[in-house]
Amino acid sequence: MKQTLKPFFILFFLDLIFLLFSGYLRDFFWLYANCSILFCLLWTLYTSSKSTAKMAYTSFFLSILQLSVILLLFVFLMAMYFGT
């Protein structure tokens, strides 16, 4: 279970860094978001093929959670960009 959760904790930490410094790192957001989405999907496929159903469902749930954090970060950046 720890092996399943470790990459997601790293990604959430990176999300927090991007959220704090989003004004400076706006140019790299698209690359990070695309890589993060790809990583989440590939990790879900890997864990579903290698582990029990419970770990696969946990990994899938964390992938959805990670994608929602990326969406919130995107909305935050768009609000900063188009805001007054």
UniProtKB/TrEMBL annotation:
Keyword Transmembrane helix attributed: yes
Assigned keywords, A-Z: Membrane, Transmembrane, Transmembrane helix
Transmembrane segments: 7-25, 31-48, 60-82
Protein name, per record: Uncharacterized protein
